[in-house]
Structure formats: C-alpha cells, structure tokens
Specification:
CATH topology of the largest domain: Ribosomal Protein S5, domain 2
Structural class: alpha+beta
Family: Belongs to the GHMP kinase family. IspE subfamily.
Radius of gyration: 19 Å
InterPro entries: GHMP_kinase_C_dom, GHMP_kinase_C_sf, GHMP_kinase_N_dom, IspE, Ribosomal_Su5_D2-typ_SF, Ribsml_uS5_D2-typ_fold_subgr
Number of strands: 11
Order of helices and strands: EEEHEHHHEEEHHHEHHEEHE
Number of domains: 2
Oligomer: single chain
Function: Catalyzes the phosphorylation of the position 2 hydroxy group of 4-diphosphocytidyl-2C-methyl-D-erythritol.
EC number: 2.7.1.148
Bound molecules: adenosine-5'-triphosphate
Distance between the termini: 17 Å
Shape: globular
Organism: Jiangella alkaliphila
Number of helices: 10
Length: 296
C-alpha cells in the first residue's frame, strides 16, 4: 500500500516583534522564522476517513482526535480539492507540545504535504500555502522550512539567506505555555505603552547572510519574552544558566517556554547542552542546527 512520509522541522524565532492588536484580534508581527533539526514525521496511507495515530515521546501530550492539527489540515485540503478521500495519518512526535516550537503547525504542514502527494493533487505551493494560512499563522512557514521573514500574522513570507549553518541548544521546560495566554499577558504588560509598528532590523538580516554569529547574538530578540517570564519566572534561571555556561546569547522561543541558545560551533553547542541538562534549570537540552529543510 502506498505510504507517503513528510519530515517536518521545529521552528524557532530569531526575532519576534509584536505590533498592535489588529481589528481581527490578531497582532501584527514581524519575525524571522528559522527551522531547526528537530523533526516530527507525518505518514499517510489511503483510508475512507481522516484519522490519526500519534507515537513518540510526546504522544501523551498530543490530541489524537479531530482537534489534532494534522487531521484538520488533511480535512481542509480534501475540502479545498473537493475530494471525498480520507487518509490514515501517523504522527511521530519528537517536537515538544505547546513549547513555542510550532510542533502542531509542523504536523499540519506535514499532513498537507503528505496528503497532497497521496491523493495525487500536486497543488502549486501558493494554493497549499493558502490552505496552510487558514489553519494557523505558523503553518505556511512550516511548509517551506529554511529561514524566512514573516509579516502580517506571520503568514506572509520572504525567504532569507543564511551564510553558514547555525548551532543552537533548545532547553525545554516541563509543562507548556498557551500561546493566546502569553499574548494576553503581553497586552496587559503594555497597556500603558505606545506599541510601535513591528519591524525586523536590517542588521539582523545582514548578520544572517554573512554568518556572523557574534553580530547575530547581539540582535536576537523576542517581544513575547517579557510575558513568558511573567507567567513562568523560572525561565529566568534557564536563561542565566545558559549565558553562564558560555552561550553567545539566549532568548525564549516564540511564546515559550522553550529557551534557545546560540553557540559558536557544534562542539560548543554539544558542551552547552550537557551543561544545561545538568544545571537542573530545564527538562531537557538538545543541540540542533539550522536552517533545516522539510523532507518529503
Ligand atoms: P505555536 O508557537 O505555533 O503557537 P506551540 O509550539 O507553542 O505553538 P504546539 O505544540 O503547536 O504549540 O501546540 C499548541 C496546541 O495545539 C497544544 O495545546 C495541542 O493540544 C494542540 N495540538 C493539536 N494538534 C497538535 C499536534 N499535532 N501536535 C501538537 N499539538 C497539537
């Protein structure tokens, strides 16, 4: 029986600038998405209906019913293509859940790519991306991987070049943070401030293009960090530990609670991961590289 497999990476935000709330309730964003080498796998085979079975270390934290983003994605694609086909999906989850790593969005993108192939649709990228945007702000980037500037809600993408592979450590935390709750806290914290239009500094794109890790380290920034720290003060200990252990820089990833640390090279990232894991300030620490590609 034909089985199609998509391998989809986690994402981190090297820069996340959160603007004012729009009339549709979303925040205007300017961000740099960067896919890293931690992958979920989505496999699809023909079936009458769309169902999902979840395996792997984070299966217990992932819904296996129709609220699973992979199921929602496959159904949205079938509707868009006016198909009655179904698919039995298997999601192998290595990306922690509700961690600020967009694992759910990765699975949605994986299901779109796998079902597009399984059902022989061969939809152009722009149409898949339109279905993806209807599923969530991070899903269009999850279809492409690599590194990209995201604007709007994050769904308008412009790929950006990266001059050399980058080495990161992801420090995960026990228990997730709800993305809407983190945004609500940010709105509370900024209620008496004027919020400027979001922007990605040109210096950051220049540092990425030239592979200058020292310049990049000084420019990593996340507007949501303040809110994530307010909700989970212990993340301050994780960030301090990483810096004391020699990270070039550390920030909260997306809406958290995962913290990301930039290392000078692969050896330093390996040593940093060991040190962070032993520090008692995180649940696990994993050395990864970026930019990572989507595999089908
Ligand atoms: P983002 O940064 O994109 O908001 P996140 O990385 O913080 O997301 P996810 O791991 O994508 O968080 O999970 C967000 C929520 O989506 C979880 O509460 C989870 O219950 C739900 N969810 C639905 N389907 C999935 C899936 N396939 N994998 C992970 N979470 C899923």
């Amino acid at each position: 029986m034909l089985q199609v497999i998509a391998r989809v990476p986690a994402k981190i935000n090297l820069m996340l600038s959160v603007g004012p709330v729009r009339s549709d309730g979303f925040h205007e964003l300017a961000t740099v998405f960067h896919a890293v080498s931690l992958y979920d796998e989505v496999a699809a085979v023909h079936a009458d209906a769309v169902t999902v079975h979840v395996t792997g270390p984070y299966a217990g934290h992932t819904p296996a019913d129709e609220s699973n983003l992979a199921v929602r994605a496959a159904r949205a694609l079938a509707r868009r293509a006016r198909l009655r086909s179904g698919a039995q999906l298997r999601v192998h989850k290595e990306i922690p859940v509700a961690a600020g790593l967009a694992g759910g969005s990765a699975d949605a993108a994986g299901a779109l790519l796998a079902c597009d192939r399984l059902w022989g649709l061969k939809l152009p990228e722009s149409r898949l991306s339109a279905v993806a945007a209807g599923l969530g702000s991070d899903v269009p980037f999850a279809l492409t991987g690599g590194t990209a500037v995201g604007t709007g809600r994050g769904e308008r993408l412009r790929p950006v070049p990266v001059g050399a592979p980058l080495h990161w450590v992801l420090a995960t935390a026990d228990g997730g943070l709800s993305t809407p709750e983190v945004y609500r806290r940010l709105d509370d914290l900024r209620s008496d401030r004027k919020v400027p239009a979001p922007a990605v500094p040109g210096e950051l794109l220049a540092a990425l293009a030239s592979g200058d890790v020292d310049a990049l380290a000084a420019l990593l920034h996340n507007d949501l960090q303040e809110a994530a720290l307010a909700l989970r003060p212990a993340l301050g200990d994780t960030l301090r530990a990483g810096r004391e252990l020699g990270a070039l820089a550390g920030i909260v990833s997306g809406s958290g609670p995962t913290c990301i640390f930039l290392a000078r090279d692969g050896m330093s990232a390996g040593a940093l991961a060991v040190g962070l894991a032993a520090s008692g300030t995180c649940a696990s620490a994993l050395a990864v590289t970026g930019p990572a590609a989507v595999g089908t």
